[in-house]
Write a structure and sequence with these properties.
Number of domains: 1
Mean pLDDT: 90
CATH superfamily: Heme oxygenase-like
CATH class: Mainly Alpha
Strand content: under 5%
Number of strands: 0
Helix content: 55-70%
Distance between the termini: 12 Å
Number of helices: 7
Radius of gyration: 17 Å
Oligomer: single chain
Shape: globular
Length: 181
Amino acid sequence: MPAYIYYLQELRELYMALEQHLREHAAHPALSLLVRPEIFRSQALGQDLEQLTDLCSDTYHAEPHAGRRYASHLKDLAEEMPAALLSHAYVRYLGDMSGGQMIGQAIERQFDLPNELGTNFYSFPQIADLDRFKEDFRNWIDDAPLSDIERCHVMEEAVRGFDLSSTIFEEVEQVIVRQPQ
């Protein structure tokens, strides 16, 4: 479980930054529909970390470097090309609403967690029809008013978002390797 807690710490770093910058640019025509508190994850991640840290005394203590690098990249992006935050919203939130559902269930089984304890991150209780919401979310992104230059940046940033997410997994894998058995 310590590696999972570390993973959530990494995610919290990037989600706090993403949500802060989406809120800062809420008036941007390409981002306005994506500023949705019901999809924001940093508060749920904070709840999960609190619950799991209380449950697991064997926590791995390390700085979430990959999460901070991702957050730093989002800060730079928000200053230089805020419309490209759309890519990271797509990569992160649609992933959470899709494959994240299966991951949450697997985590519950793996660690025998009762009543979604420690898996709030994967739950979207304010969204009645998750499939419909995902479809709407994709449409908002597809229909976002972007210039040709912004559209190119958005496409490049989608790839970058997947790469940055991969570095988080790689860092967590290193934590697992370093953990005492």
